[in-house]
Backbone:
């Protein structure tokens, strides 16, 4: 699975958090963070940087590609996570 293509495929589901079944939290961003940590655990803050109205996540798209299913990506999109082609990273609006 190609992460960038899969994020694009589900772009019509962006911020449709109400469609997420059994969320870990009622907060879309927190659900996404918990899910990402379970898929690609890390030792640093999950937010690696911020610029203007975006935050960038410290989760490698390449590492995510190895473990994530299309359903995981769909859920992340529904939580507001995007893939930035410019920076080859995951990001969110704040």
Residues:
């Amino acid at each position: 699975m190609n992460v960038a293509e899969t994020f694009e495929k589900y772009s019509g589901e962006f911020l449709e958090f109400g469609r997420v079944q059994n969320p870990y939290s009622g907060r879309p961003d927190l659900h996404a963070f918990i899910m990402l940590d379970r898929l690609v655990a890390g030792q640093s803050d999950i937010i690696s940087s911020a610029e203007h109205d975006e935050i960038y996540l410290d989760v490698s798209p390449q590492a995510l590609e190895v473990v994530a299913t299309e359903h995981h990506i769909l859920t992340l999109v529904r939580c507001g996570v995007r893939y930035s082609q410019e920076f080859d990273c995951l990001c969110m609006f704040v």
The chain has one domain: 3-93. Helices lie at 3-9, 28-39, 61-67, 70-78. Residues 28-39 form the longest helix (12 residues). Residues 3-93 form one domain.
